[in-house]
Amino acid sequence: MNIVPATHEAIEQAGEALRAGQLVVIPTETVYGLAADATNAEAVRAVFTAKQRPADNPLIVHIADWGQLGDVAAKIPPVALELMEHFWPGPLTVVLPKLKWIPEEVTAGLDSVAVRMPTHPVAREVIRAAGRPLAAPSANRFMQLSPTRADHVDPNIGDFAAMVLDGGPCEVGLESTVVDFSGDRPKLLRPGVISRQSMELVMGSELDTAVSDEPKKGPGMYRRHYAPRTPVRLVSKLGPEDVGIVLGNATGPGQISLGDDADAYSAHLYETLYDLDRKGVAEILVEIPPQTPEWEAVQDRLRKASHSGPED
Ligand code: AMP
Ligand code: MG
C-alpha cells in the first residue's frame, strides 16, 4: 500500500491515475474514500471488487463545484437546492434523478444518483485534477469500519489503489447524512452530523424517515455495518475492568472517554474502535449515548456496529 502525503504533486498524479482508470484513496471530511472516475464503468467495477461490496449498493458521486451538479443530476427540486446551498460543501449527500450517461454500476441500476460536494481541500483538488466527478465509497471492505486516518486504511483495500493520499485525520469522522429527493417527499436515508433538525429548519418542512422493509437503497441501510472485527456491545455503564468507550471520566485502564459532546465524539469514534479492535479483547463495551436528537447519527452507527444478527 502506497501512502503518500497529499502534496500538490501527488494530487496531480492522483488526477492522472484516476483519468487512466485507476483507483485512489482520498481523504474527505467524513471518512477516507476509495475513488474512481465516475464516468468509467470499468473503474467503478474495480471499486466493488476491492470492497467486496454487493453490486446492488449504489455509490456516492463526488463533485468539486456547482457546474458539475448539472453534469450529474437530471432534475433538482427547489427544496433540495435550498439544502445544498446551505450545507455544501460539506457532509451532506442528496439523492436526485440521474442523467442517462451515469454508468449503471454507479447507481446499482437505479434511476437516481447520490451526489456530494465535499469540503476537504484535498478531496476537492483531486476531483479538479481528475477533471470529472468521482464515485467514492468509504475505503474499507464491505461491513467493516470506515477509516478516518490514512494509516487505518486496510491494506487489502489500499493495494487496489495507485496511492493512498494522506490528508490527516478526518474532521467529521462519520459518513455523510443522506437525503433522498428522488421520490414524492424528501426522506432521510442515513443520519449524519448534519442533523435532521438543522435540515428541517432550512427546508421549513419535515423529513420522512426510511423504513427498513423498503427495497434496499444502499449499504448505509444494512442492519450490521461499520463494524470492527471484535464484537461490540452497548451497555448503560462500564465497570472498572471493562474495555471500551465511556462518555464521562474513565474509571479503568481499558477505557477511553470520548466525552459528552456529540460532534467531538463522532470525530473520534471510528479511530477509537479501530484502536480497541487491535487490543485482542473478547468484546468492546460502549456506553449508550443520550437518546437525544444530536446523538442520532452516533446511535445509528453504534447500533450497526453492535448488530450481531443476519448481515442485512
Ligand atoms: P457509502 O458510499 O458507503 O458512504 O454509502 C452510500 C450511501 O448512499 C448509502 O447509504 C445509500 O443510502 C446512499 N445512496 C447512494 N446512491 C443512492 C441512490 N441512487 N438512491 C438511494 N440511496 C443512495
Ligand atoms: Mg461505507
Structural class: alpha/beta
CATH topological fold name of the largest domain: DHBP synthase
| Distance, first to last CA | 30 Å
> What CATH architecture label of the largest domain applies?
Alpha-Beta Complex
Summarize the structure.
The protein is an alpha/beta fold and 312 residues long. The protein contains 10 helices and 15 strands. Helix 1 packs across helix 6 (121-130).
Walk me through this protein's architecture:
This protein is an alpha/beta fold and about 300 residues long. Helix content is about 30%, strand content about 20%. It has helices at about 10-20, 40-50, 65-70, 80-85, 105, 120-130, 155-160, 195-205, 260-275, 295-305, and strands at about 5, 25, 35, 60, 90-95, 110-115, 135, 160-165, 175-180, 185-190, 210, 230-235, 245, 255, 285. The strands form two sheets. It has an eleven-stranded mixed beta sheet, with helices on both faces. A four-stranded parallel beta sheet has the order 12-15-13-14, with helices on one face. The two termini are about 30 Å apart. The model has no long low-confidence stretch (mean pLDDT about 95). The site of magnesium ion has 4 residues, from loops. Adenosine monophosphate binds near residues 113, 114, 175, 180 and 219.
